[in-house]
Amino acid sequence: MPRGRYSLHDPHDHTPLADEHFHCAPGPSGWRYVAQLTTPAGDHSGSVDLALDELGRPIRLELHAGGWQVRGAALDGVTWVRTDTTGTHATEGNVRAHAFTGPSPAFLVATARLLRLTPSAAATRVRLVAFTDPVLAPRTVDQSWALVDRETHTTDNGPLTVDAYQVTALDTGEQHTVHLAGDVVLSAPGIELEDLDSPPSDLG
Fold first, then answer.
1. With contact defined as beta carbons under 8 Å apart, do 70 and 62 qualify?
2. Which member of 64, 66, 146, 182 has the lowest number of beta carbons within 10 Å of its beta carbon?
3. pTM to 2 decimals?
């Protein structure tokens, strides 16, 4: 069960945003990721709890940030409820999308798991609902994902397969690369893996 820490920063000016202390693991029904976020000063700033089924679909999502909470799941596309801490301001949303996304590295692993791309496959279009900081505002985004490289490295714990994905924002054409090893993000814009206590899990 991988456990570690990501540092999150602004991908443009590298301003530190948060540390994400996480653990994740595959299970009999899919994969789960749980994390607590802290500010650069060390204060608690939010949490992530994401569970996927065996096909990579989000069966449960719970986010906390900026005094807001989101709970969602794959239902008629994706469905969610966003509330404030008092529960007095609640809005429900539904979009014909494939899954959720957001700043957490968990969503990169989840999207790769959902698409199950191979190096020889053409780029695949995916529609996602992004919950953006600082108040978890929902926004629908369209992306294209392609698995452009796969390398296997020898480590003390056995072979480690690293996949490089090219991700394109279809509204702007902006492209970036995401490197994944199993269920751990090795590098991506705005994300650095700082600590890892155990090897990544092989999600197959």
1. yes
2. 66
3. 0.96
Residue 149 corresponds to which tokens in the numbers above? 């490289």
Average pLDDT value for the chain: 95
CB distance 186 to 179 below 8 Å: yes
CA dihedral (117, 119, 122, 127) in degrees, to 10, reads: 30
DSSP state of 114: H
Region of 52 please: left (phi>0), alpha (psi -120 to 50) or beta.
Answer: beta
> What pLDDT band is residue 204 in, cutting at 50, 70 and 90?
low
77 SS3 class: coil
Any idea how long the chain is? 204
Query: What does the pLDDT look like over 116-132, one tens digit per residue?
Result: 999 988 999 999 999 99
Residue position matching structure tokens 């509330």: 83
Whole-angstrom distance, CA of residue 90 vs CA of residue 43: 26
First to last CA, the chain: 15
Distance of CA 2 to the CA centre of its chain: 15
The single-letter DSSP state of residue 123 is P
